[in-house]
Design brief:
By secondary structure, the protein is an alpha+beta fold. It contains 10 helices and 29 strands. The chain is elongated, with a radius of gyration of 26 Å. The two termini are about 35 Å apart. Bound molecules: zinc ion (ZN).
C-alpha cells in the first residue's frame, strides 16, 4: 500500500495510540482460528442497490467457503471473521451450522464425525447493513473494496489474516452500463436479473487483504499483451481509467509496464500472477495505491511512475511472499519503497547519485516525523493495530527502505541481490509467507556471517545513532597516523554497529578512503596517512543514512 495522502492527519492522530500498543501488556493469542485452513471463497454479491445512490450501501451476498480441518477443535466449533457492525449471517447450509456471531467472529459447528484433514464446505447467506467503513466504498456510479489490513471481514466472511491464502471466485451483479475489474481472470460476463454478472476467478491463492474488486460506470479499459523476456509467457495487461484522467498518462504507464516487468523478473524471478492490471478508484480512496494481487488499485488520477513501480514491486514483496504476521509488514513496504529508489538508480542518467538522493529524502522524512516506535513491533503479531498506525509512512516505509539501503551497503551488491533473489524465488516462501527471521536467516546463510545484530538494531529497536566522533594525529617512527574515535550519544541504550568509511582529504587535493567496522562506544582506529591532511570526512557517501552527527 502507499499512504501519501492525508499524512499530516495520520501523524496527528496516531502518536498516543501507538504508545498504548507499544507499552501495554498483551496476550500472545493468535488472531485467527488455527484449527482451519481456508482453501476457497466463492462470493456472489448483488450490487444493483449500490448503484442507486451513494447512500445505498447495503447488499445481499452469498458465500461458499471450502476449508480443511488442520486440527480438531475441542469445542467442536470453528470460527471465522465477520464484523457484526456491518454483516448479518442469515442462513448457513452445508457441513457447518451457525452457532453465534459475536463481535467480529462467527462461530460454526462442525459435524461430530469430522477428522483432521477433512475438507468441509458451507454456503452462507448474509447481508451488509450499509454501515460506512474503510472496506466497502460506494459513491455515485462506483463501488470498490479495500481489504488491507483486516477490513475483508467488514464485507465477507473470511479467515482474515495474511497467513491463510485461498483461491477466490467473485460473481458480481451490476447495472448494464457498469464495468467490473477484480483479481484473477474474467471467467464470464452474462446478463442476469436486469443487470450483468462479471465472474472473476483467481486460481492462485492469495491473502484476504490482497483480494479486491472495483466496479464503475466510468471505466474505460486499455487491454494489451506483454511478453515476458524471462519466460516467453504472454501476459494480459488491463488498465482501468476514468473520466477526467489524462489518457497520455495512462498510455505512458502502459509503455513503462514491459520495462518494469523485465526489471523485476530479471532480478526477482518470473511474474507470478495471471495478469497485470492497474485501476484508478474514486477520490474516496484514502491511500496512494494498493497492491492487490494481479489487480493494483490507484488513487484517482494517480498514473504516476514511481507509485506504479512501488505497487508492482509488491507483487513479489508482499503478494507472492506475504508477511507471516503484521509485525513483518516492513518486508512489504520497506522493499517496495526501496525499489522506487533502485528504479531511479537504474534509469536516471546520474544513477547512483539520484538513488542516494531518493534514499536521503526517505531519511529526511523519517527524521522530520521522529517516530518513537520500532519498525518491528512484536505485539502487532497478536493485536493488529488500525491501518493508520500499522501503515506508518515514516517507519515501515521510509525508515525501513533506509534499512534495506544500509543492508545493501553492509553486505555488498553481490550478496544483497543474491539475498533478495533467494528470498523471492525460495520455494518455501513463494505463494506462502515469510517472516523477519526468515530474512535474517537467509542473509546469514548467503553471506556466511551473522547479521542478527544488523536487523536487531535497525528493525527491532526504535531510533537511530547520534554520533559525536573525534580525531587526532600522532607521529610514530616517522609515520603519521590518524587516530579516529567513534562515540554515540545514548550508547548505554544500544550501540549501533556499522562498517564505516572515513575520507581523508589532503592539501594537494588528493584523498584516501579508510574503512573499519565500529562495534563499540569509544572505539579507536589508527590509520596511516600522508602528511598535510586538510580534512577528515565521516561517512562521505552517507552509507549510514539513518544517523545524526553532532
Ligand atoms: Zn506499499
Amino acid at each position: 500500500m502507499k499512504r501519501f495522502l492525508f499524512v499530516a492527519v495520520l501523524i496527528l492522530s496516531q502518536i498516543p495510540v501507538v504508545s498504548i500498543f507499544a507499552q501495554g501488556e498483551y496476550q500472545k493469542i493468535k488472531q485467527y482460528d488455527t484449527c482451519i485452513d481456508v482453501l476457497e471463497y466463492q462470493l456472489e454479491i448483488n450490487l444493483l442497490n449500490n448503484f442507486k445512490s451513494a447512500e445505498s450501501r447495503s447488499f445481499n451476498g452469498y458465500e461458499k467457503i471450502t476449508l480443511i480441518i488442520v486440527s480438531l477443535p475441542d469445542s467442536g466449533k470453528i470460527w471465522l471473521h465477520a464484523s457484526s457492525k456491518s454483516l448479518k449471517i442469515n442462513k448457513v447450509e452445508g457441513q457447518l451450522d451457525l452457532v453465534a456471531q459475536i463481535g467480529d467472529r462467527v462461530y460454526l459447528k462442525i459435524p461430530g464425525e469430522v477428522k483432521t484433514g477433512d475438507t468441509l464446505t458451507a454456503g452462507i447467506y448474509y447481508s451488509h447493513n450499509g454501515s460506512k467503513d474503510e472496506a466497502f466504498y460506494v459513491s455515485k456510479g462506483s463501488v470498490f473494496t479495500n481489504n488491507s489490513p483486516v477490513e475483508a471481514r467488514d464485507w465477507f466472511i473470511s479467515k482474515d489474516h495474511p497467513i491463510d491464502k485461498a483461491v477466490f471466485s467473485l460473481k458480481l451483479l451490476v447495472p448494464l452500463d457498469v464495468k467490473v475489474g477484480a483479481v484473477g481472470l474474467l471467467e464470464g460476463e452474462y446478463d442476469s436479473l436486469g443487470g450483468k454478472v462479471f465472474h472473476w476467478k483467481s486460481n492462485i491463492p492469495m491473502a484476504t487483504y490482497l483480494m479486491v474488486f472495483s466496479a464503475s460506470n466510468e471505466y474505460r479499459i486499455e487491454n494489451f499483451n506483454t511478453v515476458s523476456k524471462l519466460t516467453g509467457r504472454t501476459i494480459p495487461v488491463e488498465l482501468y481509467w476514468r473520466n477526467g484522467e489524462s489518457y497520455d498518462a495512462v498510455t505512458y504507464i502502459g509503455q513503462v509496464i514491459p520495462y518494469m516487468l523485465d526489471f523485476f523478473e530479471s532480478r526477482f524471478g518470473e511474474y507470478p500472477f495471471e495478469k497485470i492490471a492497474f485501476a484508478t478508484l474514486t477520490p474516496d480512496f484514502p491511500y496512494g495505491g494498493m497492491e492487490n494481487q494481479s489487480f493494483i488499485t490507484l488513487c484517482s488520477g494517480c498514473w504516476y511512475e514511481l507509485l506504479v513501480v512501488h505497487e508492482f514491486a509488491h507483487q513479489w514483496f508482499g503478494d507472492l511472499i506475504t508477511p507471516s504476521t503484521w509485525s513483518d509488514l516492513w518486508l512489504n513496504e520497506g522493499f517496495a519503497e526501496f525499489m522506487e529508489a533502485y528504479w531511479v538508480e537504474v534509469w536516471a542518467p546520474d544513477g547512483k547519485k539520484a538513488y542516494r538522493e531518493v534514499v536521503e529524502e526517505f531519511a529526511s522524512y523519517y527524521f522530520t516525523m521522529e517516530p518513537k516506535e520500532a519498525i518491528f513491533e512484536e505485539s502487532w503479531e497478536y493485536n493488529t493495530p488500525p491501518g493508520g498506525i500499522l501503515y506508518n509512512s515514516a517507519l515501515v516505509y521510509k525508515k525501513a527502505a533506509c534499512v534495506v539501503y544500509m543492508l545493501r551497503e553492509e553486505t555488498g551488491d553481490e550478496n544483497f541481490f543474491k539475498i533478495l533473489k533467494q528470498f523471492t524465488t525460495n520455494s518455501e516462501f513463494k505463494f506462502a509467507n515469510a517472516s523477519t527471521n526468515d530474512l535474517v536467516n537467509l542473509t546469514n546463510e548467503i553471506t556466511g556471517k551473522k547479521y542478527n545484530w544488523f536487523f536487531d538494531q535497525w528493525i527491532k529497536h526504535p531510533g537511530h545513532p547520534v554520533y559525536k566522533n573525534s580525531y587526532d594525529f600522532i607521529e610514530e617512527d616517522g609515520k603519521d597516523y590518524l587516530v579516529y574515535t567513534f562515540t554515540q550519544k545514548e550508547s548505554d541504550r544500544l550501540y549501533y554497529q556499522s562498517t564505516v568509511e572515513l575520507k581523508v582529504v589532503y592539501k594537494d587535493g588528493t584523498s584516501e578512503i579508510f574503512k573499519c567496522f565500529n562495534s563499540k562506544n569509544g572505539e579507536k582506529f589508527n590509520f596511516e596517512v600522508k602528511p598535510n591532511v586538510k580534512s577528515v570526512i565521516f561517512d562521505p557517501e552517507n552509507k549510514i543514512v539513518l544517523k545524526e552527527v553532532k
